[in-house]
Amino acid sequence: MSFFPCCPSQKRLRKKTLKKNIKEYHENKIKTSFSNISFKTDSGKRKFITDEIAKLGKGNITSKYIPYRELCVATENFHPANLIGEGGFGRVYKGHLKSLNQVVAVKQLDRNGYQGNREFFVEVLILSLLHHPNLVNLIGYCAEGEHRILVYEYMVNGSLEDHLLDLHEEAKPLDWHTRMKIAEGAAKGLEYLHDEANPPVIYRDFKASNILLDEHFNPKLSDFGLAKLGPTGDKTHVSTRVMGTYGYCAPEYASTGQLTTKSDVYSFGVVFLEMITGRRVIDYSRSEEEQNLVIWAQPLLKDRRKFIQMADPLLKDKYPLKSLYQALAVAAMCLQEEADTRPLINDVVTAIDFLARKKVEVDQPHHTKHISYNKDDEDNNNNENEDEDDNDDNEDEDEDEKENIKKSHIINSSEY
Q1: How far is the C-alpha of 232 from the C-alpha of 15, rounded, in Å?
Q2: pLDDT above 50 for 401
Q3: What pLDDT is attached to residue 20?
Q4: CA–CA separation, 290 vs 305, rounded Å?
Q5: 211 and 267 in contact (C-beta within 8 Å)?
Q6: Going by C-beta distance under 8 Å and a sequence separation of 6 or more, which residues neighbour residue 226?
Q7: Section 365-387 average pLDDT
Q8: Distance (Å, rounded) from C-alpha 56 to C-alpha 24?
Q9: Is 177 helix (H, G, I), strand (E, B) or coil?
Q10: Is the terminal CB of the chain with fewer CB neighbours within 10 Å at N or C?
Q11: Could you confirm whether 205 is annotated as catalytic?
Q12: Dist CA 132 CA 201 (whole Å)
């Protein structure tokens, strides 16, 4: 499914370029040439890496090479006051590039971290060859001496983790509609990687800290160092060593190293469940039976009457109950133990797109109640039909849930 029209010839060229360039990178002759980097001088390394990226990109690399000295100036010598993030890959600093007059995020890769030369090259290639509103924009890179630095567009609102799991006391929690909007955009980013790229790109590191938010809380996926090309032809999976973050990895990938696009769907289900519940996937501060989010949620997902117990308390019951049911149903499908029973990401996008639009459909009836005008008989009949539909939908709910529905000032939609 494509949301971004372009002429067929351009799409074929982009797919062919991605497939050929990244595949070439993974071939032995390319890997062998990288092994010679350690024997070169600093200036030789820089020229070698820049030439390799240009060659592999076939002239399609949109990011630019940025000298290390310029990045030192931009970040005030990587001053701790400009530090905005830190992880296994290294540290991220906020900076200002004078040459572009642009605020940027500068990711300084840890020499001892999990991202080495191969991961560095893959991230530069993927973010230079693939472009989508829900993928972070790579502005440039630096490879001087032992330095491996990636420069991204600066995302004003940080990561989803900041607003969902590391929320400060004075900060305002994300409302239900914003959460669904973020989930929709993140799913579209995965859809682009799975369905538009050829061969498909498996993200392999989908988690809340890798979903960045702009000033309007539009999400963009970041950190592609662990991304892998998906299976092609009659292959059902690609085999690779297990990497990623504990709790987010699909069970079949964690146990066998067999990776498919459905592995990303599982990871999406975990993050979506975090967004609904406000809980971390692994939280050792909780009681033993609640430390693993997925294990805690499994019995609750089997009993619809307990769905309300799973909603984030910070939402303060300000969400459409029916949308909560639907969102949890989507999460449950993504978290199926067997990969084959999980939905494709484009089906997930369709479902969450409906949930993201649900706010308009739900709130509109309340708005019209305050407008003073004479309705004709047809309008009255429509309202009566909506009430009847609501009653039909709620017949299988117990009395406690009915009472919750009556108290809610949000739920008035007849759709389920």
Answers
A1: 13
A2: yes
A3: 59
A4: 19
A5: no
A6: 114, 119, 203, 204, 205, 243, 244
A7: 44
A8: 7
A9: helix
A10: C
A11: yes
A12: 13
Per-residue pLDDT at 63: 78
Q: With left for phi above 0 and alpha for psi between -120 and 50, is residue 59 left, alpha or beta?
A: left
Domains assigned to the chain: 16-153 (3.30.200.20), 160-372 (1.10.510.10)
65 CB-near residues (< 8 Å, 6+ apart): 50, 140, 141, 142, 143
3-state secondary structure (DSSP) of residue 141: strand
Would you give the end-to-end CA distance of the chain in angstroms? Answer: 24
Question: Which residues have CB under 8 Å from 39's CB, separation 6+?
Answer: none
CA distance 286 to 54: 49
Cβ atoms within 10 Å, residue 106: 26
Q: How confident is the model at residue 173 (pLDDT cuts 50, 70, 90)?
A: very high
Q: Exposure string (b/e) for 212-241, b if CB count within 10 Å is 16 or more?
A: bbbeebbbbbbbbbbbbbbbeeeeebbeee
- Per-residue pLDDT at 199: 80
Taking the C-alpha atoms of residue 397 and residue 33, their distance in angstroms, rounded to an integer, is 65
The H-or-E segment that residue 341 falls in is: none
What's the CA gap between 10 and 1, in Å, rounded? Answer: 16
pLDDT in tens, 191-227: 999 999 888 899 999 999 999 999 999 999 998 888 8
Does residue 142 sit in helix, strand or coil? strand
Other C-beta atoms closer than 10 Å to the C-beta of 398 total 10
Provide the annotated binding site: 107
**Catalytic choice (205, 223, 264, 312):** 205
Per-residue tokens: 249: 């990895």
CA distance 371 to 383: 15
Q: In this predicted structure, which of 42-56, 61-75, 168-182, 284-298 has the lowest mean pLDDT?
A: 42-56
Known binding positions for ATP: 107
| Contact by Cβ (8 Å): 19, 126 | no
Q: How many residues does the structure list for the chain?
A: 416
Place of tokens 């049911």: 325
Q: What is the rounded CA–CA span in Å between residue 65 and residue 151?
A: 10
Question: How far, in Å, CA of 79 to CA of 67, rounded?
Answer: 18
Per DSSP (E only), the strands in 215-281 are 219-221, 228-229, 238-239, 258-259
Are 162 and 301 a contacting pair, CB within 8 Å?
Answer: no
| Nearest CA among 189, 357, 330, 322 for reference residue 272 | 330
202 Rama sector, left if φ>0, alpha if ψ -120 to 50, beta otherwise = beta
Q: Is the pTM of this model over 0.85?
A: no
